[in-house]
Amino acid sequence: MPKSILAITGPTSGIGMGTVKALIHDFDCVLLLCRNLEKGERLKQELSERYTELDIHLIECDLSDLSSVRAAAASIQENVTHIDCLINNAGIVSIYNRKSVDGYELMMATNYLGPFLLTHELLPLVMESDRKQIIMVSSGAYKFAPMKRPFFQPDRFNAITGYGRSKLGTLYLAQELHEKYSR
């Protein structure tokens, strides 16, 4: 019988760590997609000591860097045949107007563009599973997103609306996935 596989971004703290610990009994294999490998290694060690039968893999993935996302997806594609549950949890809030290495506003890159690309790249593996679960962690901050153009690169930076925009993007992605694949 094939292993049940969970892939999760942002598992080293907060909601991500809580999610891993709550769901760990439902999976045989966990793929920890981490920006900070040191924190990821500590989590992997902790989980390995506690759950000796669990197959745990640490994968470097900085969602703000699209080349890192592609490399993480390629590594996963080379090593697993399916993913039962993909949880896009990682995210940031920034009060400063910072750019990603690809030139996008950092919150939009990390909270939406990176997860969008990761989901797109891993979707064939999710579709190979009987479960076919993709979970997008968002927040009520989407209500702060103005519905005007340009959506991805606004003329002026505002931390509240920027964060809201990135979270609205995750909801749009979740809605699109639901409409296309939930049948």
UniProtKB/TrEMBL annotation:
This is Uncharacterized protein. Belongs to the short-chain dehydrogenases/reductases (SDR) family. InterPro entries: NAD(P)-bd_dom_sf, SDR_fam. It comes from Alkalibacterium iburiense. Keywords: Oxidoreductase. SUPFAM superfamilies: NAD(P)-binding Rossmann-fold domains (SSF51735). Pfam families: adh_short. The keyword Oxidoreductase applies.
